[in-house]
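Milestone M4 deliverable, item 7.
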Amino acid sequence: MSEAPISYRLIRSARRTLGLTVTPDGEVIVRAPKRATLRQIEQFVGAHAEWIRKKQELMRRRAVERAKQQLPPFTTAELASLKKQARAEFPPRMAELARWMGLSFDRLAIRAQKTRWGSCSAKRSINLNCLLVLVPEEVRDYVMIHELCHLRHLNHSPAFWKMVEYYDPDYRQHRRWLREHEQVLIGRLPEREKDS
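Output delivered:
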């Protein structure tokens, strides 16, 4: 699947050469001579596409780090509240999804985990991160579906991902959301709460 075209803001001036800038928020700015054609500009952007995407990813990571620094760790009271909410909301939704998928699990535990959003053991025990109460509902459902699929495939084989996609056709988008936000959310867990 080909990459989406790179969008950019064009600024023309009396300069003699084409130039590129990626701002801290990931915007691409192309500075071009007044005489440069749109085709020349498009070719210039295309030739630098890999550099642009790497720069945008670097800016995104820096933005995440800044966000982490601005947000304090969760307090004990905040974590207790998140766990209480998760323990009230997750079991019925997990049961509903399991019935829909024709599966059953033996145990569901809610934890504040630093290293993962969820897990499933060979003993049919599923763990979910209490911080999932803070993510969009469809992303939370993806994590639940992911762990339920492990009841049938205790691996990440092509068959596993095919099953995940069957029940969540947009799972790639949901995985991306988690990758982009996990450091902002999971990064706020205090040291003593990590993986507890």
